[in-house]
Write a sequence for this structure.
């Protein structure tokens, strides 16, 4: 009985630590890329700064909730089209922001003194993403 409790406690600790790591990465990603400030600047909505932050947090929490539940709901095609369009806008903004992040890698390598390893850093990120995605699709989806 104590072994099962220890395993569950370990799972909770690993899950919590993973959540903190992913959450910190997400916040750092948005901060480094300046997605929210850039949106505010483009939309000229400086008076809605707090609302942008609230929407980002609410969206992350709602997405997490949907990821961990088995909610199935029948929606109209109009709502699904709107939902898909919002996903497309978000992914498009992330893709546009990623083009700007390429400037971060040279600055990072210069600051930590590994200028000669820039290619290795970029390849590590690329292959890490590929291997992680393949692991999720081929192994975790089958469990």
């Amino acid at each position: 009985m104590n072994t099962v409790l220890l395993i569950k406690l370990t799972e909770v600790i690993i899950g919590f630590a993973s959540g903190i790591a992913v959450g910190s990465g997400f916040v750092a990603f948005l901060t480094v890329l300046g997605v929210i400030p850039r949106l505010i600047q483009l939309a000229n909505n400086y008076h809605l700064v707090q609302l942008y932050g609230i929407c980002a947090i609410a969206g992350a929490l709602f997405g997490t909730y949907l990821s961990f539940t088995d909610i199935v709901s029948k929606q109209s095609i109009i709502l699904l089209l709107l939902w898909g369009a919002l996903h497309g806008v978000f992914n498009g903004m992330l893709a546009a922001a990623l083009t700007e992040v390429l400037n971060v890698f040279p600055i990072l390598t210069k600051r930590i003194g590994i200028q000669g390893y820039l290619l290795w850093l970029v390849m590590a990120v690329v292959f890490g993403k590929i291997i992680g995605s393949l692991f999720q699709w081929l192994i975790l989806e089958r469990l």
Observations:
- Residues 48 and 132 are 37 Å apart (CA to CA).
- The chain has a mean pLDDT of 79.
- The two ends are 25 Å apart (CA to CA).
- Residues 2-33 form the longest helix (32 residues).
